[in-house]
Protein: Adenylyl cyclase
Organism: Nocardioides luteus
Amino acid sequence: MSGLIEVELKAKVSDVDHVRAELERLASGIDETYHDTYYDLPDETLTARDQELRVRTVTNDSGSRSLLTFKTAPVETASGSRPEHETEMTDPAVADTVLKALGAVELISFRKLCRNHRFEAEGREFLATLVEVPEIEGTYLEVETLAPTDDVEAGLGTIRTVLAKLGISDGDLTTETYTGAVAAARQRGVG
């Protein structure tokens, strides 16, 4: 994804049935389960730099695929939009072994239940994902597109237009991360 930024906005959805129906009108969805494992160095260097290193395995009715992803610090702080470098791999256990041999440690691992919709609108390609994480309450909607570095604001504008058509307002937007929400839920469960 050289030179492109993953421009994304995330919202907590209050009327899930309405949003699901509107998304299905745009494009048929596919159900997928993501198993995400995040890594950092023992001193949490990546976290301090607002970077992420993740191994994701995506499973659906057709099988599974695994991805190694490195996200640099956000270039647009309000949305958290950031450059993303990703490659497909055949064996996530090998990636885990290599990362740990290089000194990385596992920060957190969790599942996301997703329904993905790919469509074109506003002259761009979009991925809209309804997300449920079993460990946290609620349903979320992520809408993303790719944009060159000098087009991030325009990309965010088109995402807001798509969200409005789905019945999502700026008041529904959130920058809360799944990693943070899952960690907090686990901490509450410990006490």
